Structures are given as C-alpha cells and as structure tokens.
Amino acid sequence: MFEPGEQYITLALVNDAISPEYQIRYVKASEGGDTVAFMVLTAKNLTELEAQFGEKVSEALHPIDRQSAFFKQGEAEQSRCVQRKN
C-alpha cells in the first residue's frame, strides 16, 4: 500500500513500462489545482509536436520520471493537507 504522496511510483513505473513507444507527460497547466493532469502520447506524436512547437512542448508537457520535481511538490502539499486534518 502506498503512503500519501507516493503516486509517483506508479506513474513512473507505468511510464517505464510503456516507453519508448509511449510517454506519460505531466500537463503543466494543471499545476496548482486540486487535481493534476497527465497525457499519454506516442513517441511519433511527441516528435511531431516538438518539431512544430519546439521548447514550448517540454514547457507545457513535462516528461516524468522518479526524480520529477512536481512529484516532490505534490508530496509537500499532501503532507500539509494531512497535517491540517490531524
């Protein structure tokens, strides 16, 4: 059973399992809300998007791995929520 804030483990493992054909990307526009969004794209789609929009793609759709900063931010926020409930 995962502890609060450990969802990144599942996402990172799924991302590892489906790559290199697919990638899970964190949708930056969902940051700060009560939920976060992720998008699954084929490697071909990502290459096409990056060719068309360049750096804007990685700014809007962050690659994820076990060291991704937004997971750590999520853990800190979840810890604050748990502390408030106690």
Describe the structure.
This protein has 86 residues and is of the alpha+beta class. The protein contains four helices and three strands. The chain has one domain. A three-stranded antiparallel sheet has the order 2-1-3. It is globular.
Low-confidence stretches: 78-86
**What's the alpha carbon Rg, rounded to whole Å?**
14 Å
What percentage of the residues does DSSP assign to strands (E)?
Answer: 15-25%
Counted by DSSP, the helix tally is 4
Structural class: alpha+beta
For the secondary structure, the number of strands is: 3
The oligomeric state of the chains shown is: single chain
Strand order of the largest sheet: 2-1-3
Order of helices and strands: HEEHHEH
Report the sheet with the most strands, covering strand number, pairing sense and barrel closure.
3 strands, antiparallel
The amount of helix comes to 40-55%
Q: Note the gap between the termini.
A: 21 Å
Domain tally = 1
Shape: globular
Mean pLDDT: 79
List descriptors:
86 residues, alpha+beta, three-stranded antiparallel beta sheet
